[in-house]
Every structure is written in C-alpha cells, then in structure tokens.
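Deliverable D5.2: sample structural annotation.
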Amino acid sequence: MKTMLTMRRACLLALALVVAIPVAGQQPGITADQAAKQAELMSKLVAAESVIAKDEAALGRKYETAFRNSIIKGLTSKSLNDIWATSPDTASTNAVGIGDSGDNLVYTPVTPCRIIDTRVAGGAIGAGGTRNFLAAGGGFAGQGGAAGDCGIPFGPATAVVINFVAVSPSGAGDLRVWPFGQSAPLASIINYVPGANVANGVPVAICNPAVTGCGTDITVLSDSASVQIVADVQGYFSKPSAPVSQNLAAVVTSAGALVSGQSFRATAASLIVSNLYEVDFDRNITNCSYVAGIGDPGVGGSTPGSVTVTGRGGNPNGLFIGTYNAAGAATARSFFVHVICPAAPTTP
C-alpha cells in the first residue's frame, strides 16, 4: 500500500512538473503565473490523495467515486499546510458541504420550550412592523418565554424548528421570519385572518455568528395587520462538532466484565461458558471487520494467548469471542476487540 502510494505520488509530481513548466512550442499562451497555479493545484491533488489513502488504510473506509471526488474537491480548497495537517479520521468531513455551518447540518430535537409570547411581554407587533427575537442561548423572559435555557446552543445552532402561532390578528395578513441582519423574504410562514389563531411549525434559519455579528437571532414581520405571536422551539440544526467515529472498541476482563473506561460504543459483555464471550455494541456491525487480541486491562503486559472473533448469529450488534492460552487450550482470558466499520454514506 505504502509503495503503491509512493509510486502514485511520484507519478503525480512528475505530471505536475510537466504541466507547470511551459515548453516552447507546446504550451502557447501559458504564463508563468498560470503555470505556478497549475503546479500548486497538482501539489494539492497529491496531498489530498495522500490524506484519503491514509484515511482508508487506518480506518478501513472505502469511498465511492462521487464521494471521494467530493472530498478531494473540499481538501484542495484548503492550503497545502492545512491538507497535510488533516488527520486520517477527518478526511470525509472535508467533502464539499459536509460539516459546513450553513448546510448539511445535524438535527437535534429538544423538549418543546416557549421562547416568545408577546401577550406576556412586548405586546402585539403592529401592522407592517418588525421585531427581533432570540431563539438560541437562554434568557427568553424579556420576550415572554422561558427564563432559562431551552436547549438551543448559541453558535453551533444555525437553524431552529419553531412552532409559531398567530394569536388574535386584527385583520388579514401574514407572518414572515428571517435571520437577524438579513433581508426580509417574500414568502410567509403563516397567513392569518381575524378571529382565528393559526399555527405552523417550520425550520427557520437563524443568524449565524460564524458569518456575521448576531445581536439577536430572528426578525419577525407582521404584514398588513397587527398580531400577537407565540413561539415554541422543537429542535435545532447545527454543524457536527466532530465526525462520528465508525471505530468501536471493547475491553473485557476474563470474568466477562466490560471495562467501560477503555471501551467505545460497547454496551455489554458477558462470559457465556468456559472461554466463550459475547460483546454487544450500540449499532449494527454486520458489515464491519473485527480485530481482537489478548490483553489484561490496566496491566503493562500479559501472558501469550490467542483470540477468535465472529459475528453473533441473530444479533446484528453482537460478536462471539473465544480465548485460548499459548498452547491453544480453551482458557478464560482478558481481551480487547476493535470493530472497524465502513464510513458514511455506506454504513448500515
């Protein structure tokens, strides 16, 4: 693998030199600046390929062509130093749009919590009037909501699911909502008429502090008629703080006890009989590969032995582990097992 990568890198570098150095009569119109940019791009491609190769070797990932190309495109948008500094377990987060603070976000539901009630504070929004509100962080009492934190983190959250209610409108009109500091949209989220309270739950983009200063989170426009507003948050969208690891691990004592402090995403372990153990994880691992070995947790060394590991029939989250001494006799031993799963988007 390393030799193939070295050869491939050498070929790409050779190609970079061919592209970068204009030859009289062969590349008319190529300036020195253009040639330098071509050489830089080729260097970035070499670096990106190296990062992906290390990622696949270390984590057992196999990227589909389209996803791989997307990762390369994301990596080459960075500086060479940033590319070389990319760790193997974060390569896939460099795919274009993945982990961006503005799109392809992760949704987190929260217990419904009131953030706005103009009947309690502030009063109705007048016809054609706008008002700014908080939707993340805490301290919503000043706008009629909860005094504490509703579970929407300020900063990571860049969109919030909010159930809005137009209460006691004075006439026919509509409600529009947009991120603080941006322009009002043409589309409404609620159309209301007098004598009816109208509700609608929608995902709403909020002010993104990674892009601009955020005095508040959203602006609300009451178009055509005054109206009271009640709003409850239901959940939020945010950039993942770290890529979800597809590597699981368990350390188990000879008695079948799971050593939770040295395990990751393992949920249970047990000694079934003699030298046969079962280990369970919190996800389906049928399409994953397994590596296991003898090892006494918390001890600097252990006596020789061997381990066998197979999938657990009828339990897609489980493994069977068999342990043996150096002579091959069935013996209860402490062990570890490392589970390596395909990376998203192919992970079951």
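Annotation notes: The first strand starts at residue 106 and ends at 117. The chain has a mean pLDDT of 82.
The annotation will be released with the project's public dataset once the embargo ends.
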